[in-house]
Amino acid sequence: MLRLAAALRYAQPTPRSLKMSSMKKMTCRALVVSLLALSFQTANAGMIGADQAAAQTDRAMVLSVLSRAETASQLQAQGIDPAAARARVAAMTDQEVQALAQDMQTAPAGAMSSGGWWAVVIVAALIWYFAYRK
Fold first, then answer.
1. Could you tell me the pLDDT band of residue 98, with boundaries at 50, 70 and 90?
2. Which residue spans traverse the membrane (predicted)?
């Protein structure tokens, strides 16, 4: 007991910078608890093949085309529910989706045949002839 009294008598007062406020203590405790709680989560990583990656991108491309407003209106005009079309694409196999995506990518965007191009060229030639003749 005597030693304790002597130790307390000669104890150095702690500087104000070393004292922690209650807010700092709570913050430190919260950080320690969150570090301990969140450190036990495990990540599961695996390799996927090129076929699976291509199938995912093809399926995403087909679904993005189906989600466009003009595509949905065309489907509804033909009596097909767009949600049912998306469900059908989800039920397709990877090979079917790949074939559909390839057909969509190779289809002509404006659906203009070669005769249409000739008409554009002839109209442009006529405009040029009549606009620039002397």
1. confident
2. 115-132
Return the DSSP state at 28: H
CA triple 87-91-94, angle to 5 deg? 130
Which residues are CB-contacts of 63 (< 8 A; sequence separation ≥ 6)?
86, 89, 90
- Predicted TM-score (pTM) of this structure: 0.45
Helical pair 50-66 and 94-106, crossing angle rounded to 10 deg: 60
Provide the sign of the torsion angle of the four alpha carbons 59, 64, 70, 76, taken in this order: positive
**Three-class SS state of 72:** helix
To which residue do tokens 């990518």 refer? 105
pLDDT at 21: 78
DSSP 78-126: TT--HHHHHHHHHHS-HHHHHHHHHHHHHS-SS---HHHHHHHHHHHHH
Q: What is the mean pLDDT of residues 24-49?
A: 80
72 by Cβ neighbours in 10 Å (0-12 / 13-18 / 19+) ranks as middle
- Read off the DSSP letter of residue 133: -
Q: What percent of the chain has a predicted confidence (pLDDT) above 70? A: 74
